[in-house]
Amino acid sequence: MKIQEIREMTAKELASRKNELQHEAFNLRIQKQGGQLEKPHLLRSIRRDVARIEMAFTEKTKAAAAK
C-alpha cells in the first residue's frame, strides 16, 4: 500500500486494515515455521504496511487533538 492511499482512509478503515494485516502476518509466520512459506518477502511488506498504518493513525489523532 502506498502512504497516500493510507492517509485517505478513515480511522475505522485504518483499524480494520491493520487488524487484517496482523492476522495475515500471523498466518505467514505459522507457514514459515512449518516450512511451507513460498513468498517470504510478504512478511516484510506486511510489517511495513502495518507501520505505515500506525503512523497515519498517529498523524490523524494528533491533528484531531490540535483542533
Characterization of this structure:
By secondary structure, this protein is mostly helical. The longest helix is centred in the C-terminal third of the chain and has 26 residues, at 41-66. The mean pLDDT is 95. The protein has helices at residues 3-7, 11-34, 41-66. Helix 2 (11-34) runs antiparallel to helix 3 (41-66). It is elongated. The chain has three helices and no strands.
- What are the low-pLDDT stretches, counting only 5+ consecutive residues below 50? none
Q: Class by helix and strand content?
A: mainly alpha
Task: Give the termini separation.
Answer: 28 Å
Report the CATH topology name: Helix Hairpins
Helix amount, in percent? over 70%
The CATH architecture category equals Orthogonal Bundle
Helix-strand sequence: HHH
SSE map:
Blueprint: H1 3-7, H2 11-34, H3 41-66
Helix pairs in contact: 2-3
Summarize this entry quickly.
This protein is mostly helical and 67 residues long.
Short descriptors:
elongated, 67 residues
